[in-house]
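Worked example

This section walks through a single chain of length 295. The input is the sequence exactly as stored; nothing has been trimmed or padded.
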Amino acid sequence: MTAFLEQSTTPHHLLLATDLSARCDRALDRAAQLANEWHAELLALHVLDPAASPDQALAWASGASDEQLLHVARKQLAHDLALANVPATLSLVSSKHPADVIRDTAASTQSGLVVTGVSGKETLGRLLLGSTVESLARSLSQPLLVVRKRGRGPYRRIVAATDFSVSSRHALLSAARLFPGRELILYHAHALAMSGLADAAPHPSVCVSIEETECATFLAASAIPESVKVRPIVECGAIESMLTRYVREHDIDLVVMGSHGRSGVMSLLLGSTAAKLLDWLPCDTLLVREPKATA
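Given that input, the structure is written out below as tokens.
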């Protein structure tokens, strides 16, 4: 409880990492909405890397200098932010290592959240592997908000996915801190037994009952303040398909996940589970890295 209260303020600084493409328009809109909601300062960062942008590569090949490319990018970024109707500071950096620049900028500006977007036309399993987003997800200390949906107001329906690990508890507490006044749905999917072991496995209803008991124990140990309403949901099945179905059927706006744990996203990024989960979820995703233990 004490740890939660000590951190029970929303971020004062937000960092939007944008490549100025159409896929980041939704991330810009969401960053602007959160900055207004939290009365936070917004910093929009674009890392100029001609090798990663076809139009910039063409301009660079035609003899444009870095300063000329930065000037064009600055004008576009300023125009996009003006349309978003939110005060923001612009930052443009030329580098072949965008993840490093984003991570260092987030640290130096004391940003409490990094916001970015992804392409809706590529599977995230393909997009994440070796990408800036994957690098940030692995190394960023701050929560990383990956925006997929068009923002139509504040987040209302929020799911915190849990595997009952310390990492998922930290994600739940972060969701409660960042989005006060919203009901949180604590979601757990219990994987079905392998077909060859089905005869020895308990009936699905028994499994759900057992997991519901563990979920209650997890919540009790999380010391969630009474003012925060948490509704536990336990289902039987694979997390990729079950959570995706739940998100679609219940119009979930945001899924919050821990960085590692029994089945945490970071421990599975190079496997199929996380790639499927991040690809299939039709909503925004907040990845929360568990703080390193101190001696």
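What to look for: The longest strand covers residues 41-48.
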